[in-house]
Specification:
Blueprint lengths: L9 H16 L12 H12 L2 E5 L5 E6 L2 E3 L21 H7 L1 E3 L1 H11 L6 H20 L2
Antiparallel strand pairs: 1-2, 1-4, 2-3
Helix pairs in contact: 1-2, 1-5, 2-4
């Protein structure tokens, strides 16, 4: 699913995606997203703001966005300068994680996660999250 809208800044998109996912899955805190649905967070955020979809299978598997030289996930909406700035990789050796990062286009990302992700892939979940994010972002989309 591709979102047809102008690209928005990650500082606007990240909290909106996190809020949408917390609502959809009834999560209590942003970190809950990183234990099974981080791939949806990265995929949906990418649809609204671009950036590179990044995936690391080591260390339990984590999906996130890389924009310029910063790393973003549900717990770090302002981005981290180092991969260790993402709590998921807090205790990992940064150089080793950097070597494991795969940058994928959205369709490849989706296919790869279908094969090896924690809970597979559900287009209907993505569509629902996108719908909630669009609603959350309406004021940002209309402000020009």
């Amino acid at each position: 699913m591709r979102v047809k809208a102008k690209k928005l800044p990650i500082k606007v998109v990240a909290p909106a995606v996190t809020q949408a996912m917390m609502s959809h899955y009834k999560y209590h805190k942003p970190d809950d997203i990183n234990f099974g649905t981080c791939y949806y967070w990265a995929y949906v955020a990418n649809q609204f703001c671009g950036g590179k979809l990044a995936l690391v299978w080591e260390y339990g598997g984590h999906a996130f966005l890389k924009i310029r030289n910063r790393y973003f996930d549900s717990t770090v909406p302002k981005g981290a300068k180092s991969i260790n700035g993402l709590p998921f990789f807090k205790y990992a050796v940064a150089e080793r994680v950097e070597k494991e990062i795969e940058i994928l286009l959205p369709e490849k990302f989706k296919q790869k996660w279908k094969r090896g992700g924690a809970f597979g892939w559900s287009d209907s979940d993505v569509e629902e999250i996108v719908s909630i994010v669009k609603k959350n972002l309406e004021p940002a989309n209309n402000a020009e």
